[in-house]
Structure formats: structure tokens, C-alpha cells
């Protein structure tokens, strides 16, 4: 079977069997893409070096976790001047290199993580058939590319817990678009000041009453016409 509705696969991947375990559904998948381009020089190759198996988690079905047993090939690179002599085929529409989660599952978990953060998101994901630890869920959020910061008029500053009770940073929000535009590694006057100095177009800074953000905003953005506190 090439694909089935509850496990839709990109072209070039074929489901060979489905079985059940008490804790999850096992779906065996084989890649049939030929040729495969070298990730370094992009030269296509049809010469198989060997096979190996990956075991990523996929989106659940009816609340039951799905595990893919994905057979992937390694190819010889036939470009004589390429330094990569053997390479593993890439399946970018299904999964990223070295990832243990399919793209669709990771995107679903990132959506939950942004809505509920670590612990709450992990509890909900587990109930939906996507068991994951709070730490791994937060790590998935770090993989989301930060959008390019253009002209920003109104920003919000607040604490961001990298590790609750132990390590905090600063999250910066575009208050007009309601989107996160940056996360600073630390919660300090200096980091806030430096970030604001890079954006002289800012007119309004919304912040809490904490001294760190009061001083950072005063030093880094003395030009705003307004300052809201919460």
C-alpha cells in the first residue's frame, strides 16, 4: 500500500505493513525515491551503499500514538570532487535529519507549546496521544525560526522562563501584530537596552513594573511617546 488516509505520506514513500502494540501503532515505511541528491553537492545518485532504520513518532490516530519504522538508504556520491563520499537520503517533506518526530507531529506540538508552554502543553499532548516531556516540548519551540523584525511601533516586554524558578529571559512582543519577535537569553537591563537601541522607531513600550524593564526601557528607548505598565 502506498499510503492510507490516517498516515498520509509524501510521494516516494510506501507503507509496507501495519501492526499494533498495546502502547502504539507500528507503521513500516520504505523509501522508493530514485535517484537521491547528495546534500552537499546536489549530484543525484542511484548507487545504494546500505540501509538503516529510523523510528520517528508520527501524528496519532484516534488518540493512539503512531511509530514509524522508516527504512532509509545511504548512497555513494558519484561526484569525484565532493568531500561527501556516502550520504543518507533526505526526506524533508516527512522528517528533518536526526529528528525523532515527523514534521507534522512537531508542528502540532509547537502549536500546543506556544499556547500552553511546557508542563501544560505536555499534559494536553499526552492526553491527545502525543506523549512528550515538558523539556522536549520547549526544545521544539526553540526550533521555530524567529520572524524577521521589521519596523515595530509598539512592543511589550515580559519575563520568559527558560527554566521556571531558576533561569529567566525576556520575551518581546509586537503588540500590534500580537506576535513574538524575539526572546532574549537573559533578563537584564543591559540586554533590554541593547535590543531597544537597535529599534529607534519604537514609539510605545509596554512593560511590567519590574525595575529591570523600567531601567532598560528608559536607557534603550528614551524617545517613545508613551509607556504602558502592567
Describe the protein in words:
- The chain is α+β, with helices and mostly antiparallel strands and 230 residues long.
- The protein has 3 domains: 84 residues, no CATH class; 34 residues; 76 residues, Ribonuclease H-like superfamily/Ribonuclease H (Nucleotidyltransferase, domain 5), CATH 3.30.420.10.
- It contains 4 helices and 13 strands.
- Strands 1, 2, 5, 6, 7 and 8 form a 6-stranded mixed sheet that branches. Strands 11-10-9-12-13 form a 5-stranded mixed sheet, with helices on one face.
- Helix 1 runs antiparallel to helix 2 and helix 3 packs parallel to helix 4.
- It is globular and about 65 Å long.
- 24% of the residues are buried.
Percent of residues in helices: 10-25%
Tell me the number of helical segments per DSSP (H or I, 4 or more residues long).
4
Low-confidence stretches: none
User: What is the number of domains?
Assistant: 3
How many beta-strand segments? 13
H/E element string? EEEEEEEEHHEEEHEHE
Shape: globular
Q: What fraction strand? A: 25-35%
Query: In this structure, how is the largest beta sheet organized?
Result: 6 strands, mixed
Distance, first to last CA: 57 Å
Q: What radius of gyration results from the CA coordinates?
A: 23 Å
Quickly give the structural class: alpha+beta
Instruction: Determine the mean pLDDT.
Output: 86
Topology diagram in text:
Layout lengths: L12 E8 L4 E7 L4 E2 L6 E2 L2 E7 L2 E5 L2 E13 L9 E3 L14 H25 L6 H9 L11 E10 L3 E8 L4 E6 L4 H9 L6 E4 L3 H10 L5 E4 L1
Parallel strand pairs: 2-7, 9-12, 12-13
Antiparallel strand pairs: 1-2, 3-4, 5-7, 6-7, 7-8, 9-10, 10-11
Amino acid at each position: 500500500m502506498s499510503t492510507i488516509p490516517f498516515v498520509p505520506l509524501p510521494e516516494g514513500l510506501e507503507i509496507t505493513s501495519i501492526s499494533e502494540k498495546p502502547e502504539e501503532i507500528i507503521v513500516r515505511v520504505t523509501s522508493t525515491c530514485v535517484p537521491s541528491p547528495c546534500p552537499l553537492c546536489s549530484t543525484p545518485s542511484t548507487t545504494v551503499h546500505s540501509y538503516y532504520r529510523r523510528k520517528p513518532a508520527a501524528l496519532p490516530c484516534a488518540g493512539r500514538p503512531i511509530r514509524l519504522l522508516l527504512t532509509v538508504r545511504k548512497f555513494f556520491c558519484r561526484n569525484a570532487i565532493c568531500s561527501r563520499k556516502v550520504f543518507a537520503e533526505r526526506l524533508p517533506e516527512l522528517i528533518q535529519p536526526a529528528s525523532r518526530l515527523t514534521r507534522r507531529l512537531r508542528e502540532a506540538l509547537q502549536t500546543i507549546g506556544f499556547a500552553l508552554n511546557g508542563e501544560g502543553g505536555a499534559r494536553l499532548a499526552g492526553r491527545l496521544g502525543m506523549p512528550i516531556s515538558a523539556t522536549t516540548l520547549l526544545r521544539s519551540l526553540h526550533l521555530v525560526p524567529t520572524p524577521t523584525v521589521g519596523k515595530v511601533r509598539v512592543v511589550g516586554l515580559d519575563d520568559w522562563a527558560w527554566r521556571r524558578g531558576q533561569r529567566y529571559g525576556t520575551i518581546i512582543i509586537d503588540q500590534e501584530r500580537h506576535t513574538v519577535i524575539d526572546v532574549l537569553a537573559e533578563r537584564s537591563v543591559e540586554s533590554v537596552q541593547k535590543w531597544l537601541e537597535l529599534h529607534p522607531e519604537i514609539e510605545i513600550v509596554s512593560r511590567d513594573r519590574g525595575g529591570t524593564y523600567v531601567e532598560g526601557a528608559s536607557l534603550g528607548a528614551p524617545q517613545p511617546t508613551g509607556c504602558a505598565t502592567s
